[in-house]
Amino acid sequence: MSFKTFDLAHDVASLVSAINEVVTISASLFSGSGETNVKTFTNIATASAAPALGGYWQTVFDSAPTSQASTALFDVTYGFSTGTQLSGVGLTYGSIDEKTKVYREMASMLLGSADARFTINSVSKNECFFVLIKRGLMKDELKKGAVSVVLSGSTGVVTASDAGAATSFKQTIGGDYAPIYSGSSAVELAQVWYNAGVIVIPASGVQLPWSGSDAWSGSVLLTSSQSGTTIDSLAYGLRAHVQKINFHNQTNLYSTVYFCRATNTEFNYSSNPTYVDTTQRIRVTSGSNVLQSRTYITTVGLFDANDNLLAVGKINKPITKAPDTESIFRIRLDY
Asked: Which of 92, 114, 169, 191 could form a disulfide with 108 if both were Cys (CB 3.0 to 4.6 A apart)?
C-alpha cells in the first residue's frame, strides 16, 4: 500500500451548490375554519379538555393529517408582545398570556431577545402572525428572492415579494432575513427569515389589505379577536386572508473535492506479497514482454494525520499505472 500527502493549496477544493424546489401554497389551504387538512391542538399546556384554549399553533397538511401519505406543510400561530395594550387580556396560563409566550419565543429565536420587537415598515409591531414552513419541507432554507405572498381583505388584494433580496438581505442572530415589499406601493408588508423558514406578518398596518372591520373567524373582528379569541380562531382568520404563498426550498450542498494525483514516478509498485518472487524480483505477467513495472489501481483511501482511514473510494475497473502514465482521481465528499 502506498501513501501520499495532499498539497492543501492545490489538491483540495471546497464548493457549495444549491438544489432548489419550487413550492406554491394556494388559497385552498387558506380558506378559513373547518378544513380537513388542518390539525389543531387542545390545551397543550394543561393537557386537559376544558376549557378549550386552542393550543399554541395550527399545522396545515397537504391532505388529511391522519393519512400516511400526507405531508405537514407549515404551522400558523399568532403572538403579541408585553408592550401591547392587549397584553394580559383574554386567555392566560398563569400570569403570562399564551400569545405573549408565542411572540417572546419568536423574538428570542429571530431577534436574539425575548423582549425585542419586530420592526416592519419602520414601525415596531407588537402583534404579529407567524407562518413557519416545516423544516422537513424547507430542508436548509428558503431561497432568497423567490418568496411572494398574496393577501386579500376589505380594501382589496395586495401582492408582495422579496425581489432583489439575493443581494440585499440582512443578517442578524436569527440568520438571514429580508423585507417583503408590496409591488404596487413598495412598502414593507412583512418579513421572511430564510434560515429559520419563518414569514412574519403584522396583524395591522396601513400597508395591509384588511382593517378592523374584517371578519376573521365567523363574526369575530380583527380589533377584538386579538385579545379575547384563541390562537386557532386567529390562525383561521389569517388563512382566510391569504390567497397564495410562493417560495423555493433551497438545499445547500457543501462538498470537498480531493484530487488524488499519481504522477509517472509514483504508485508503480505493489505491496502485495505476490508482486515479487522468492528472490524479491518483480514477477512478470505470464506471456508479457513488458519489462517495466506496472500496477492496477482499484481503491483510493483518505486518511487523517494519524493514519486513520476516513473514506474509501472504489474504482469501477482497475486502472493501469506505469512509469510512462499518470492518473488523477477526483474524490468528492458531500455533507
From this structure: 114
d(CA 132, CA 111): 16
The Cα 282–Cα 297 span in angstroms is: 17
Distance of CA 250 to the CA centre of its chain: 7
CA 246 to each of CA 105, 128, 143, 159, 211: distance values in angstroms, whole numbers, following the listed order: 25, 20, 11, 11, 24
Residues 130 and 234: beta-carbon distance below 8 Å = no
pLDDT for the residue 262: 92
pTM for the model: 0.72
Contacts 24+ apart (CB under 8 A), 159-163: 159/183, 159/184, 160/189, 160/190, 162/192
Pairing between β-strand 327-334 and β-strand 170-172 as defined by DSSP bridges: unpaired
